[in-house]
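pls read this protein:
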Amino acid sequence: MKKIITLSVFTLLYAASNLFAVDKLYIVGDAIFSNWHADVAPLMYSEGNNVFSYTGWFEVGNEGFKFIQDSDWGGGYYNANASVTLTPDNPGTLTTNGAGDVKFKFAVAGFYKITCDLNNLTIMAEAKESHDEQPTQYQALFLVGEASLGGWDLDKAMRIEKQNGLTYSRDLYLKAGTFKLAISPYEEWNNDYFFFRDPGDAGKVSRDASDDRQWTINETGLYAVTIDLSDNSIQFTKKDFDKLYVVGDAVHGGWSTENIQMLNEVSPNVFSYTGWFIADQEFKFLPERILSGRVFQLMNGSGATGYVGGGATLKPDLEGNGDYKFKLDESANYTVTCDLNTMTITAEKIAYQDSEIKYAALYMVGTATPDNEFADDFPTKAVKLTSNDNNTYSATKVALTAGVFKLLTANDRGWSTTHLFRDANDDTKISTDGSGDRKWTISSAKNYDITADLANMTISIVENISTNTSNESIYSKPYLQIISQNKSVKIVLLSDYIAESIELIDITGKTITTANNVSNRIVLGNNLHSGIYLIKINIAGKSTVEKVLVK
């Protein structure tokens, strides 16, 4: 029997109206402080259901103002459908028809609260005494001064982004010296566009410009800067770097911040990446996945683009102060290490390999992992497979549950990264073909050792029983595992290794059994007596002997 669902006209209209919901709306124009600069246009308050409001000072005798959906002019816009001067008794009509590019105006300068209803395409205005009731949501604040890498050049003021509510924060590399904050870097040194140190509390910001009071940075380094305009507080705390990216023509991903590689943290302020670098091509380092927008980068400290050689220096600086990069003189896999304690960089070519290493790490996500497929949990819960410098990535004793997983090449950008899938015809193979979103299946909750080999596009998923009951033990080598369990001995070859022969020998030297041309896993003995046994393995033309205890 079919289930029939009846929706009211109201429900359908409500659903239709929310289908085209606008996430953000900005006000822009020469009637307000930010003028026509979209990158500093104030963000309007969302009242819900496509209704937005803004309270601020409006000038007269100019073009006026309109509204945009994106701060880079790339999205939709709303302007007036005809020349209109807004008053509390004279609401206006919004339109997305750009004919004539008509703006809204006020006849008298002052504080006004304007409300835009995008469902009904109406705009209302109310006169206000100030904007205290609804403080301005700046897109960003801008740090300028001796402490800034851009100095007193407003064109190079360092941008501090809006976060939640009225909080603005960013990690900035600052020099010893003083600074103050601008709300727009385009209005030169008009004090109406600045925040200053409060005269009675250095932990507060103030619009009082008397004495041009500034804050002081005592020691050069990375700082977490936070300003909360809900209580006018400011904090700047020296900290360690928590991430670093490599970007450039020399590395996988090029200049695309979507494919950029995040280095692995070796120790506080020390980061390393093993990957393929193209000879004579340029690269540099970023503290964020952002190439522009008044943020600092780590460039060649020599003041010119040059080769790393036996080592070189790093310099945190703004791209506008020069764009000096690094090079390597031979195409190969290198381990490049950046020590941000000493601001030095080294590059060590690893053993010759045909296989180009691309990724700093791989990450397991899915219902079999603790992440459980919530993208917001990637940074803390995705299971990291660390690089082994030979284009394999591994993790041991991973507690997996019954479920599925796939592999991502980054954990800091949600689903917007390269995915690696289970091969359609072979569970031990890795594929870049995403049709069907194929995943690997874990049938039972246990600890597993995972190794992904991107040189051969294979994956090994082996139960790790090292922490199981007392009659079980495991001996691990880079190329195999020897598992003693329930009076038997099992050999598991990792990756694509092939053993010419494997012998199980008792303590007297007697061969119990022999297996030839082993390429995956094999049980060498059952119902064995307790004691020590020897495993003689001939692999890659070499012979090795391992001991195993059977309990």
Q: What stands out?
A: The radius of gyration is 31 Å. Residues 1-19, 467-474 have pLDDT under 50 and may be disordered.
